[in-house]
Amino acid sequence: MDSRLAVVIMAAGKGTRMKNPAMAKVMYTIADRPMVEHVVDLAHDLHASRVVVIVGWQKDSVIDHLRESNKKVICVEQNPQLGTGHAIMQAEKPLEGFFGDVLVLSGDVPLLSRSTVHQLITYHRSEPTTATILTAILPDPAGYGRILRTGPGGSVTGIVEHKDATEDQRLIQEINTGIYVFDKQRLFEGLEHITPNNVQKEYYLTDVFQYFWKHGLPVRAVPAQDPVEVQGINTVQQLEDARAVFAARRG
Question: How far apart are CA 32 and CA 190, in angstroms?
Fold first, then answer.
């Protein structure tokens, strides 16, 4: 067991574009297993000392499945659902007494491999950094947040959303995947200082980076070898594509 690693899996979303409000998005299956189960198995493959699953929409189906599958996780409800930052705030109590790195995963990113995440964690621990972002290099990055690397040694100094990016920034092909490793103490310190100053009135996890940069705390990034691994499932078509990728992997 890696006593220095905890994993928080965000699995509270409704998945509106999946067109089935009676079903939690993370419960759609790939190879006859819910997406969230694939992500939980990844966390266990990494030998994380604690695995926290943030549930919300149709939470009972997620909790019951993980319990019946004998998955050793702590499920915590996010209610109301006020954004990604708010979701991670719910993990503070289950992580009391833990000191180390917090890996943030998404329950709707089921193709992520152990080798990619191991590379992310290893890089995080080998560099002087407060947080490390898993990125991807896309030939067409339209719609994604771009990674700005203007700090020493290519460290990250900004994440700019597509709609807010300049023409030059939109030429950047490195994008934020929403998968991170944080120093636990700094993560929750930063979450105490983010505010819902946006149209949606939500707490965004990415706002903690603004806190880090304001206080001179370094942020780094490492690209995934295969961008397909970090594809989130938001539509029925994306689910079918992921099923095809998973089937091809299994030969």
Answer: 38
